[in-house]
Design brief:
globular; 8 helices; 50% helix; alpha/beta; disordered C terminus; Rossmann fold; 163 residues
Length: 163
């Protein structure tokens, strides 16, 4: 019996599902997000967090209610007390920016809850090949699992041969 791989869905994913900007790169990211979500997400155990729901609720996106609704059927991973220490280590060691409720928290939650993937369009701080070795080293020192940090396009590629 094969278990489904676990995907932590970060805030940018539902946001891009309902992206309205018309620049070519924004449209492409929206289309890849929708294609992955609509055709491939069922192959994974999808999880998110209260932090993602909070970010979406507090944002000024016109589609925020629909973004939140996308996450309705997902399991919500809990912010255990150990997660605060992980976030603090990421910020202290300059693995992630100093906003403890942002990228560091998403990475800490995906790592602590042993997600196979952290799905994001944040290519500055998360899905960034130049940062991945730093993240892996930090997680090794902290005794944590390191999820692959990917975009929907990368997971589409993984499933393209299965269509």
């Amino acid at each position: 019996m094969t278990t489904q791989k676990r995907v932590y869905v970060e805030t940018s994913i539902p946001s891009f599902y309902y992206e309205v900007r018309e620049e070519p790169e924004m449209k492409a990211m929206r289309n890849w997000t929708r294609e992955w979500w609509d055709n491939c997400s069922c192959r994974y155990e999808m999880v998110t967090s209260g932090a993602v729901l909070d970010e979406l609720s507090e944002g000024n996106c016109a589609s925020k209610a629909r973004c939140i609704e996308l996450l309705d059927r997902m399991s919500i991973v809990q912010v255990e007390s150990a997660v605060a220490g992980i976030v603090e280590a990421y910020v202290r060691d300059q693995i992630m920016p100093g906003d403890p409720a942002g990228d560091a928290l998403h990475l800490a939650l995906a790592s602590f809850h042993k997600c196979d993937f952290l799905l994001t369009w944040n290519c500055n701080h998360l899905a960034n090949a130049n940062k991945f070795d730093h993240i892996r080293r930090a997680n090794t020192v902290l005794g944590l699992h390191t999820p692959l940090i990917v975009t929907p396009l990368e997971l589409l590629g993984d499933n393209a041969s299965e269509r």
